[in-house]
Each structure stands twice: as structure tokens, then as C-alpha cells.
Design a protein that fits this description.
alpha/beta, Rossmann fold, five-stranded parallel sheet, 5 strands, 8% strand, globular
């Protein structure tokens, strides 16, 4: 088993919906940040990559068919080299809507406190902070910095990954572009949409506002 699909999109761009769609097409299991919560020993490879060290990506991602979200999107270039047959999906959304979503969920004060006070393993939190620094210089509540970092990431992915290997995908487009890109039969059931901001705040942060 080796990676077949790699997601280059940041969190809060529909990555969980995409994972559910890929799962339903038989492309699983998936590596994403939550794997580091369950297996914090896996964080060592990602921290090494952030230090610029060589990583055995085949070993680090052994057993997974897909990989999405952070920290995957931080290292898409190295993963493209390590898995030359894999296809890439860059999930995107309106940048202002993305920023609004992050401020209510992953970058909210409540979530920052949860992460900093043991809500996730310390090793995983270090990986998370590496991503914050890489894209936003750690300034995850500065809208201008977030917009610039988001747009820069999207542009760099498009410049780095050959067009024939890359699908730029808004999950609101549904099954059509995804199935065509993957060469699978068009699905007749509704495309899965999951992990709305309200659901994140309720299930992860315990808030009902």
C-alpha cells in the first residue's frame, strides 16, 4: 500500500468532507493531524521535516492510502517527490470565508487554550505550531497575514505540482470534478459535507453558540 492521493489544501477548506468522499470511493485509510493525536510518536518525522532534515516518507506514511490537511499540506513538495505516482488535490474556498471559519474554530482563543493546556499531545502541538509559523509567522488572528499566507500557499502549490497531477477543488463542486480527476465512476449519492464551524465548536470546543 502506498499513497495514492495527497491533499495540499489547508484545514477549514473542506478536508474532512474530501476525506469522507475518498473513503467512500475505497481510498482509505487517511493520514491527517488527528493521527498525531492518536499516535504522537509519529510527530517526530514531521518535526524533522520542519527542521529541514531528510525524512523517510515511505516509512512515515506506510499503511495510508491518502493524506490530507495539516501537516501534510506543509510538505507537499517533498511528498510529490517521494510519491511520484500520487495525485494531488488542493482544496480551496473563498479566502474571507476561510478566515472567518478559522477564527471560530482552529484559530479561536478557545482552541488555542485547549491546545496549549494539554488538549492534544505535546508532540502534536509542536507540529501544529510549526505550521502556524510557516504560513503566518504565528500571527493566526491577523486577517491580513492570514489572507496573504493562504493565497501564497495556493499559488505555490499550483506552481509546484504539475497540472496533470493536480486538481484545484472546491468541495461545493461535488462529485463531478473529483471523480473525473480520479478516473472513477460518477457517484449518485450526495457529496458528503462535514465538520461545519458550528459542529467543530460543539464537538471539539464544547460550545453551543
Amino acid at each position: 500500500m502506498t499513497l495514492q492521493v495527497i491533499g495540499a489544501g489547508m484545514g477549514r477548506t473542506g478536508t474532512i468532507s474530501l476525506q469522507m468522499a475518498l473513503d467512500s470511493l475505497g481510498l482509505k485509510p487517511c493520514f491527517r493531524m488527528t493521527e498525531l493525536f492518536k499516535h504522537p510518536e509519529k510527530a517526530a518525522d514531521w518535526l524533522a521535516a520542519d527542521r529541514g532534515e531528510e525524512v523517510d516518507w515511505q516509512g512515515a506514511l506506510a499503511g495510508y492510502t491518502t493524506a490530507l490537511d495539516w501537516p501534510v499540506c506543509d510538505h507537499y513538495g517533498k511528498l510529490a517527490e517521494a510519491f511520484p505516482e500520487a495525485k494531488f488535490i488542493l482544496t480551496v474556498r473563498d479566502v474571507d470565508a476561510w478566515i472567518d471559519s478559522t477564527q471560530r474554530t482552529i484559530f479561536s482563543p478557545e482552541n488555542q487554550q485547549r491546545l496549549a493546556t494539554g488538549g492534544v499531545p505535546a508532540e502534536a502541538y509542536e507540529v501544529i505550531k510549526c505550521g502556524w509559523r510557516r504560513h503566518f509567522d504565528g500571527r493566526i488572528n491577523d486577517r491580513e497575514v492570514l489572507a496573504e499566507g493562504f493565497r501564497r500557499h495556493v499559488d505555490l502549490v499550483k506552481q509546484t505540482i504539475p497540472a496533470e497531477r493536480l486538481l484545484v477543488f472546491d468541495v461545493s463542486e461535488g462529485w463531478g470534478p473529483l471523480c473525473q480527476f480520479l478516473g472513477t465512476q460518477l457517484q449518485i449519492w450526495d457529496f458528503p459535507f462535514a465538520n461545519t464551524g458550528k459542529r467543530f465548536r460543539k464537538n471539539v470546543l464544547g460550545l453551543t453558540d
